[in-house]
Each structure stands twice: as structure tokens, then as C-alpha cells.
């Protein structure tokens, strides 16, 4: 060990140590180890002091410079510091442990060095496999630990650094703290293996059962005993002040030493909360899929000889799943009628008919379910429903129903847009179409259900259709919360509208405002873009 | 434009093959026009989807329905897709939006700079705005949902291969929404990118209403080519604009 050579920082990677036949790893420990060295001006402390600053080419680590030292996770006796250091330096663990023990006798230096390394050197990756300690190694290690502690106490007493009355209690305090700290480390490992328990107690005891509890309690008892002894010893009046200082120092020391523990605690709590949320979400998704998709699939299998029915079921299920996934409340909220806020995008507006988009979606869904057709709906903008808009949605629904019944197609397009002064809706199919003039007088669907509704609400309706050319019902309803005048733009931009295919609808003779829908439309667009 | 125009397999939802070069200048508002690249036929297509079942189905259906496209490869993960697309250099990539390891957006991010000639058409079961907008902003030239009929899918592939954009009605609605003028919105920083022209709005509205390009053209008295120009221009604005709504949707998917 004596051949561990101290080198200047410059000599890092070039520095080699011809020792043990191991490919010359040189230390290069990170900053904290420097602290060790600062205390270690002792010639008899080659390993720890030598660990101060070296370049390092730790073999097998696979990391280019600067290689790090890691505390071992497996095959360790206390915290894996000695093993890690031995790996790092390429010497036998026994020597490192012995050096720590010897150092411990020199004013507790070994203990200090060990503690600092423990605090600052990270643990190696948890999946690194290590052989566990053999029985003999374990005996040696524990023997050396005991020796080190003993030497610390004896050395302290002899050198007068720790006066006789304080030496024992302080030693007890230190041991107690060490035990608690070690427990935090072990708890951590166990938690990685077993997953989370809940609460602070779960973090401290970590599901380790009786032994962990005993160890934690022992640690706490150690600290308390130490403090108690100090207090009792210092009961003399003259020593009272000193005793208080000693107690405070102890407490501060404990707090400082357990900082990593508390940090871990906080992090673990966060991890645990996340894990719990994930689990709950998973359970909810599973439950939802079971209640909806699986049931529908079962139904589909039963009805597989009815194509229309299968289509209807599939569409209905698809819509429902979409609402659940992308609806205003996201997939986490199966309660579709929850207080859905006014959504600001059509993609988010698939439930709870409080707004136009939701009402349109619901109407389309109902028709899809009833007639086994596909209704493609697009809604731009959104607004709270009022009486006029309810009428608009009902009229649109009627128009979709008409298309589903008469057009002979399996897809209908619905488009609704909220404009500054009005809401427009278009229901379009590419189906049979009809001759508006040839509609029998006794057919009331269009005139009553659609036109009548719109006009009672103050809106208007146009129909463009011809046999074989499909049908488009155009609906417009002025917004009650708007001061705009929807008719004002009818003239100046009317030329944009292709009046060519526009015809009056059933029972409608030359609807005068037939162009106003598009005209307003264009005006709004111009206004918006200018 | 192309002499052997691919849009001759006409059907609902497509343009026809009647666009002439004159059509491109027919409309005065036509701006920022693009030239469709004459494409080799058949269009080479690469399928990316993590559902093997969907890939198999789409492959069989696409190849049986049309000889205009040829599937040259497929991949089930982001890594496979990046490797396969780099190797095969297809004209069009049919890209699933939802996949493990970042999904279609990740594939786009890794390949857009490297392979600017490869065109991506996003394909998804999702209709959520943030998915649609995000993948468009990541560089896809179109977005269709998986419920699209095979004929329409073929037409969409051919169209993006020719450099056009493909907007489903839902996407048109989202874009209109994103570019809407809302009271209290922040001021427009880049008028060229942050606003749609009135005519672009008209085109988008008609798209959202379910009109095919041909129908839009006759509705607005412009040529199909001009419609395509407007849609491409809207696509460009959707991809480049920094409007809050667009950035927000993209940020929600941790893009940009």
C-alpha cells in the first residue's frame, strides 16, 4: 500500500501504479475525497490519504476519464465504501478495511474518512451483480469495524480529544447515527425491489419487517442514550453550559448526517405518489374497457349476421370511446355529464350538451345509433347553447335524419361554425337528392321540422339539391349575444356565392335570404382576415 | 402538370383529371403556387404502423385496389421505420401517429431533414386536435383517419405524392379554428403566416363541409389546381405559423 503514490492533479491519467499485477488504476477520486486528504497528513494512512487526487483508469468500468468511484451494492459489510475503494485502487478489500481501522485509532480519522466517502461517493448501479460476502470475509470485516470503533474511542480518550466523560456518549451517538443512516440505505434498496409502501413509516421501515424496525429503534435509542448520558454527566452546575453545547452539537450533527436520508424520503414519497396514480389509472382504464368495448364486442359477435347492426354497434362504441379518450374530461373521467367546461376546440367537445359542439356531437351520435350511418361532424369554434342554438341543433338533427332516411348513403357530413354574428350549420350528403318542386304537399319534415324551427328562432334555412346530386341543408341562426346585423352584408359580397345550384326547399318559394348565409360567411371571413 | 394525371380514378372525394395548365392562372388570388412534381408510377409507398394486422390489411387492400401504388416496405416501430425508409427511399410514407417510442412525430423528426423528398401522410384513428396539428406541424403533408375508404386512401396517397396537401374535413375544421380571430387573442406577429386569406378560408370551409376538390372548384368558380394551391398554402401556414393555438397543440405533444 505504501507504493500508492501521490501525484499532482496534472498527472492523472498518466499515473500508474505497478501494484498487485492489476492494471494500475490510479485513484482520481472526486472532490470529497480531497477532504479526506486534507485531514490525512499522516504517513501511516496510505490508502485514504493517497486517495486524494489521482488520475484514474479504473479497469473494466468502461467509462473514460474521469472515472468515478462507486460504493459497492453487493458483497459489502457496512456501506460498501471499503469495497468500492478497493475496486477503485485495485487492492484487496482487507487492506483497505485495515487501513480504515488503523486510521480510526489516529484521532478517529478513519471513521471520518469513511463517513465522508459514504456521504459523497455514489452507490453503483443497482443491477450490477456482486458476489455476496463470504463468511470469513464477513468475520474479518466486522472484526475490523469493531476494531476501528474501539480504536477510535481508545484513541480519543488517550489523546484527550474526547475527554473521558464525553467519549463514550459521543461514540454511542455516532454508532446510533450510523445505524439509522445505514437503515436508510437498506430501506432504499428494499423499496426498489418491492415497490412502494405508503407513508413516512413505510419509507423508514420499508417493509423490512421486524429486523428493520429493531435496527431503526436501536439507532434512535443510541442517539437518545448518548444525549441522555451527556445531559446526566453534565448535571453539575459548572458543566451545564458545556452540556447544552454538546447536546446542540449532537443534534446538529445528527441533522447534518441524516440530510441524505430526508432527501431520499422526499423523493420516495414523490415516486410513490406517481406509482399510485399510475396504478389507479390502469385499473380505471381496465374497468372502462371491460364495461364498454368488451361488451360491445360480445354483442357484435352475437349479431354478426346483421351487418347494419354490427356497423351501428361499432360506430356507437367508437364514438363513446372517443368521447372518453378525447372528451373535455379526458379518459380519466368516465362520468360524461360532469361539469364540462366550455371546451375551446372541436376535438375536445364530445360530451355533455352544454355547448354547441357537444349538442351537435350528441345529435349526430343519436342519428348514427338509430340509422346505422356514419355522420362526420366538424365544429369550428364553440359557444354556450341558447334557445336559438337549440333550435338550430334540432333542425340539423332533423336534416341528418332526412339524409339517413332518404339519401341512400352511409355517410353524412355535418359542419357547424360559430361566427361573430351568427352560427351556421351545413348538413350534406352525396345521396339521391330530390326535386324540391316535386315534393308532395303533405310532406312536412323539411318545412316544419327544419324551416319552421329555424324561423321561429329568428334564423334561416336554405336547401340546395337536385336529383342525383345530393342534398345540402344550410342553416343559420343569429347569435343572441351578438350585436351584429346578419343581413347587412348580403349585398356587397353576394357575388361570391354561387347561386347556381341554390333552390328553394320543399314548400319554400324563393326564400329571399337564401344568399345571406354565405354572404355573412364571406364577410366574416374578410373582416377577420383584414 | 403531369401528363398522365393520376386523378383519373375518380370517385367521391377526389378531383378529376381535367385540370389544365391554364387552370393555375385562372384565379387571381392564386398565390404561392407550387409545381406538382411529375411522379413515377406506380407511387412507392412505405407503411409504418405498430399494428401488424392493420399493416397486412392495408397492404392487401391497397395493392388489390389500384396499380397506381406499390408497397415497397413496412415497419412496426420508430427504429425500423427510420432504417427502412432511409434504405428504400419511398415516395410516400403512410405514417401511424400513435406508436411506442414517440410515434409518427418521432419518425418525422428524425427523417425530415435527411430525406426532404419523402412525403409523409399521417394515418390515425385519433381525431384529437393535438394529434392532427402536431403531426402536420412535424412535417406531414396530409392527415387521414383510418376509417377512410381504400379508394380515397389511394387518391390521397397519389395526391401527396404529387406535392399536394390532403386535408380531411376534421383537419380543415381544426385549422379554421386555430386561425380564427378571437377577441382578446394576442396580436398577429407575422401577417403572412398567421392569417388565412378570405379565399383560403372559403376553401377550408368547403373542405370541412365535406366537399371534394372538384366540388370546391365549381363552387368557388376556380380551377381544381387553384384549390390545391390554396390548400397547400394553408398547409404551409399551419406548419410554419407561430400562432398560439398551433404552438399549443404542438407543445401538448411535446413537439417543436
TrEMBL record, chain A:
According to the entry, every stretch annotated as the Phage shock protein PspC N-terminal domain falls at 68-124
TM ranges are 101-121, 141-158, 164-181, 202-230, 242-266
Q: One of this protein's Pfam families, by short name?
A: PspC
Renumbered to this chain, the Basic and acidic residues biased-composition regions fall at 440-456, 488-509
| Keyword field contains Transferase | yes
Per the record, the GO terms for biological process are: phosphorelay signal transduction system
Q: What is this protein called?
A: Signal transduction histidine kinase
Give positions of region: Disordered: 1-69, 329-353, 431-530
GO MF term set: kinase activity
Ranges of residues in domain Histidine kinase/HSP90-like ATPase: 391-479
> Which keywords appear in this protein's UniProt record, sorted alphabetically?
Kinase, Membrane, Transferase, Transmembrane, Transmembrane helix, Two-component regulatory system
What organism is listed for this UniProt entry?
Answer: Prauserella isguenensis
Family matches, as PANTHER family: NITRATE/NITRITE SENSOR PROTEIN NARX-RELATED, OXYGEN SENSOR HISTIDINE KINASE NREB
Automatic annotation (TrEMBL), chain B:
- What are the start and end residues of every segment in region (Disordered)? 1-41
Q: Which residues carry this modification: 4-aspartylphosphate?
A: 96
Response regulatory domain boundaries: 44-161
Give this protein's Gene Ontology molecular function annotations: DNA binding
Under the heading InterPro entries, the entry gives: CheY-like_superfamily, NreC/VraR/RcsB-like_REC, Sig_transdc_resp-reg_C-effctor, Sig_transdc_resp-reg_receiver, Tscrpt_reg_LuxR_C, WalR-like
Pfam name, any one: GerE
Q: What is this protein called?
A: DNA-binding NarL/FixJ family response regulator
**Native organism:** Prauserella isguenensis
According to the entry, what is the taxonomic lineage of the organism?
A: Bacteria, Bacillati, Actinomycetota, Actinomycetes, Pseudonocardiales
Amino acid at each position: 500500500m505504501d507504493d500508492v503514490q501521490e501525484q499532482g492533479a496534472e498527472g492523472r491519467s498518466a499515473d500508474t501504479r505497478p501494484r498487485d499485477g492489476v492494471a494500475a488504476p490510479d485513484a482520481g477520486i472526486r472532490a470529497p475525497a480531497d477532504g479526506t486528504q486534507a485531514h490525512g497528513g499522516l504517513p501511516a494512512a496510505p490508502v485514504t490519504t493517497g486517495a486524494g487526487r489521482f488520475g484514474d483508469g479504473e479497469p473494466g468500468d468502461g467509462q473514460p476519464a474521469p472515472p468515478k468511484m462507486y460504493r459497492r451494492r453487493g458483497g459489502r459489510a457496512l456501506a460498501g465504501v471499503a469495497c468500492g475503494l478497493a475496486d477503485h485502487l485495485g487492492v484487496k478489500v482487507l487492506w483497505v478495511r485495515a487501513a480504515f481501522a488503523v486510521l480510526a485509532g489516529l484521532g478517529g480519522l478513519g471513521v471520518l474518512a469513511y463517513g465522508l466517502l459514504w456521504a459523497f461517493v455514489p452507490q453503483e448501479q443497482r443491477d450490477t451483480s456482486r458476489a455476496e460476502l463470504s463468511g470469513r470475509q464477513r468475520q474479518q470485516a466486522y472484526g475490523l469495524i469493531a476494531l476501528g470503533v474501539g480504536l477510535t474511542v481508545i484513541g480519543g480518550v488517550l489523546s484527550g480529544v474526547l475527554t473521558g466523560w464525553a467519549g463514550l456518549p459521543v461514540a454511542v451517538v455516532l454508532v446510533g447515527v450510523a445505524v439509522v443512516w445505514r437503515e436508510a440505505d437498506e430501506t432504499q434498496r428494499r423499496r426498489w425491489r418491492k415497490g412502494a409502501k405508503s407513508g413516512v413509516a413505510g419509507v423508514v421501515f420499508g417493509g423490512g419487517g421486524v429486523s428493520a424496525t429493531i435496527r431503526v429503534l436501536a439507532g434512535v435509542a443510541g442517539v437518545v442514550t448518548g444525549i441522555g448520558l451527556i445531559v446526566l454527566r453534565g448535571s453539575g452546575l459548572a458543566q451545564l453550559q458545556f452540556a447544552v453545547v454538546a447536546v446542540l452539537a449532537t443534534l446538529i450533527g445528527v441533522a447534518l448526517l441524516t440530510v441524505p436520508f430526508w432527501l431520499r424520503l422526499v423523493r420516495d414519497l414523490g415516486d410513490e405518489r406517481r406509482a399510485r396514480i399510475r396504478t389507479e389509472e390502469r385499473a380505471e382504464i381496465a374497468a372502462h374497457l371491460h364495461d364498454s368495448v368488451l361488451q360491445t364486442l360480445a354483442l357484435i359477435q352475437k349479431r354478426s349476421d346483421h351487418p347494419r347492426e354490427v356497423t351501428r354497434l361499432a360506430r356507437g362504441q367508437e364514438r363513446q370511446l372517443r368521447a372518453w379518450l378525447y372528451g373535455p374530461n379526458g379518459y380519466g373521467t368516465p362520468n360524461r355529464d360532469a361539469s364540462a367546461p366550455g371546451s375551446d376546440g372541436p376535438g375536445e367537445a364530445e360530451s355533455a350538451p352544454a355547448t354547441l359542439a357537444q349538442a351537435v356531437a350528441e345529435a349526430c351520435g343519436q342519428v348514427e345509433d338509430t340509422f346505422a350511418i356514419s355522420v362526420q361532424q366538424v365544429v369550428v369554434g364553440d359557444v354556450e347553447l341558447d334557445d336559438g342554438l337549440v333550435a338550430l341543433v334540432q333542425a340539423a338533427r332533423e336534416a341528418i335524419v332526412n339524409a339517413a332516411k332518404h339519401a341512400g348513403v352511409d355517410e353524412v357530413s355535418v359542419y357547424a361554425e360559430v361566427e361573430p354574428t351568427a352560427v351556421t350549420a351545413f348538413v350534406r350528403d352525396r345521396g339521391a337528392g330530390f326535386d324540391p318542386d316535386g315534393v308532395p304537399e303533405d310532406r312536412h319534415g323539411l318545412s316544419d321540422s327544419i324551416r319552421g324551427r329555424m324561423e321561429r328562432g329568428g334564423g334561416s334555412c336554405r336547401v340546395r339539391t337536385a336529383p342525383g346530386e345530393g342534398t345540402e341543408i344550410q342553416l343559420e341562426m343569429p347569435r343572441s349575444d351578438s350585436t351584429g346585423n346578419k343581413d347587412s352584408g348580403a349585398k356587397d359580397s353576394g357575388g361570391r356565392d354561387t347561386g347556381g345550384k341554390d333552390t328553394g326547399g320543399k314548400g319554400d318559394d324563393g326564400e329571399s335570404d337564401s344568399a345571406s348565409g354565405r354572404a355573412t360567411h364571406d364577410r366574416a371571413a374578410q373582416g377577420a382576415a383584414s | 402538370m403531369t401528363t398522365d394525371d393520376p386523378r383519373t380514378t375518380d370517385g367521391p372525394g377526389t378531383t378529376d383529371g381535367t385540370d389544365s395548365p391554364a387552370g393555375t392562372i385562372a384565379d387571381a388570388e392564386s398565390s404561392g403556387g407550387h409545381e406538382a412534381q411529375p411522379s413515377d408510377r406506380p407511387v412507392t409507398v412505405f407503411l409504418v404502423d405498430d399494428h401488424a394486422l392493420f399493416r397486412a390489411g392495408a397492404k392487401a387492400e391497397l395493392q388489390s385496389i389500384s396499380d397506381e401504388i406499390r408497397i415497397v416496405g413496412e415497419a412496426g416501430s420508430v427504429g425500423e421505420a427510420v432504417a427502412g425508409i432511409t434504405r428504400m427511399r419511398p415516395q410516400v410514407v403512410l405514417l401511424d401517429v400513435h406508436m411506442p417510442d414517440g410515434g409518427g412525430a418521432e419518425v418525422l423528426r428524425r427523417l425530415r431533414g435527411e430525406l426532404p423528398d419523402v412525403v409523409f401522410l399521417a394515418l390515425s384513428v385519433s381525431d384529437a386536435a393535438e394529434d392532427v396539428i402536431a403531426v402536420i406541424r412535424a412535417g406531414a403533408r396530409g392527415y387521414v383517419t383510418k376509417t377512410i375508404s381504400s379508394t380515397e386512401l389511394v387518391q390521397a396517397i397519389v395526391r401527396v405524392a404529387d406535392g399536394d396537401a390532403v386535408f380531411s374535413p376534421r383537419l380543415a375544421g381544426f385549422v379554421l379554428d386555430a386561425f380564427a380571430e378571437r377577441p382578446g387573442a394576442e396580436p398577429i406577429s407575422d401577417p403572412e403566416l398567421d392569417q388565412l386569406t378570405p379565399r383560403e378560408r372559403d376553401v377550408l370551409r368547403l373542405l370541412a363541409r365535406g366537399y371534394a376538390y372538384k366540388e370546391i372548384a365549381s363552387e368557388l368558380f376556380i380551377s381544381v389546381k387553384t384549390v390545391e394551391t390554396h390548400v397547400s398554402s394553408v398547409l404551409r401556414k399551419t406548419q410554419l405559423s407561430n400562432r398560439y393555438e398551433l404552438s399549443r397543440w404542438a407543445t401538448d405533444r411535446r413537439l417543436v
